[in-house]
Amino acid sequence: MSIRQSAIAKLEQLPESLLPEVNNFIDFVIHKYQSETTNEKQQDDIAKAWDKWFEAVDRLEVKPTEPVSEYQQLLLNKYRKQGLEL
């Protein structure tokens, strides 16, 4: 006897007054399974979107900008004296 047939046989033995509770439980199990499946798909979609974003960012060309003010030049010089390369 399969699991399905066993469950159906048990259902047939239950009194009519308990069937609404069993029906509610079955609905709960179905909803829980659907929610888990949906969450897994959403997580996969989010991971794919992040991967796509990182690939796009990795292809960006970064160009150093020249300082436009004396303050920026002094600040860059200060950082370079500290060993930072900007």
Structure explained in plain terms:
This protein has 86 residues and is mainly alpha-helical. It has three helices and no strands. It has a domain at 29-61. Helices cover 73% and strands 0% of the residues. It is rod-shaped, with a radius of gyration of 31 Å.
- In this structure, how is the largest beta sheet organized? none
Average pLDDT score? 88
Over the alpha carbons, how many angstroms does the gyration radius reach?
31 Å
The tally of helices reads 3
Number of strands: 0
Distance between the termini: 73 Å
* Beta-strand percentage range: under 5%
Tell me the structural class.
mainly alpha
Low-confidence stretches: none
How much helix is in the residues?
over 70%
Globular, elongated, flat, extended or rod-shaped: what is the shape? rod-shaped
Q: What order do the helices and strands follow?
A: HHH
